[in-house]
């Protein structure tokens, strides 16, 4: 599946629930972006809390793999929730995700070229 298909699936889901990101009025768009940014930060915080729990257990001497395996489903769920908010924010910001991602990646390649691992 391509990224544009994921975007369209999310747009359709949002429209079906009255949360469409096709806001035309600047004030509506701003309100939606603020709401989704708060949601994104909340989900990132929940993902961070999952990792904190894993670290606490590992630091207390518990088996890292076992603790991680136990928390991984919850961590993935929170990261997917964050991804959904990010997709919505990018849509509200009228972002051509594929084009802008590739442009940013090219910029980062040049910017961080001195750190490239040439052993590959």
Parts with pLDDT < 50 across at least 5 consecutive residues: none
Distance separating the two termini:
28 Å
Strand content: under 5%
- Please estimate the helix content: over 70%
Mean pLDDT: 93
Shape: extended
The SSE order reads HHHH
| Helix-strand makeup class | mainly alpha
Regarding quaternary structure, what we see is single chain
Enumerate how many helices there are, as a single number.
Answer: 4
Q: Please report the total strand number as a whole number.
A: 0
Mind summarizing the main beta sheet? none
Calculate Rg over CA atoms: 19 Å
Main features:
single chain; 120 residues; mainly alpha; extended
Please describe what this structure looks like:
By secondary structure, the chain is mainly alpha-helical. The protein has a domain at 28-95. Helices cover 77% and strands 0% of the residues. The chain is built from four helices and no strands. It has helices at residues 3-16, 26-59, 64-92, 97-111. The longest helix is centred in the middle third of the chain and has 34 residues, at 26-59. The protein is extended, with a radius of gyration of 19 Å. 6% of the residues are buried. The model has no long low-confidence stretch (mean pLDDT 93).
Provide a quick synopsis of the model:
The protein has 120 residues and is mostly helical. 77% of the residues lie in helices and 0% in strands.
């Amino acid at each position: 599946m391509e990224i544009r298909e994921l975007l369209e699936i999310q747009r359709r889901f949002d429209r079906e629930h009255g949360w469409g990101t096709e806001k035309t009025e600047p004030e509506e768009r701003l309100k939606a972006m603020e709401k989704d940014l708060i949601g994104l930060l909340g989900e990132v915080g929940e993902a961070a809390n999952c990792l904190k729990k894993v670290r606490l257990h590992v630091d207390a001497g518990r088996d890292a793999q076992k603790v991680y395996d136990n928390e991984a489903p919850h961590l993935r769920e929170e990261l997917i929730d964050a991804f959904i908010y990010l997709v919505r924010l990018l849509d509200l910001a009228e972002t051509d995700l594929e084009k802008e991602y590739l442009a940013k990646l090219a910029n980062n390649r040049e910017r961080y070229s001195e750190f490239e691992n040439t052993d590959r």
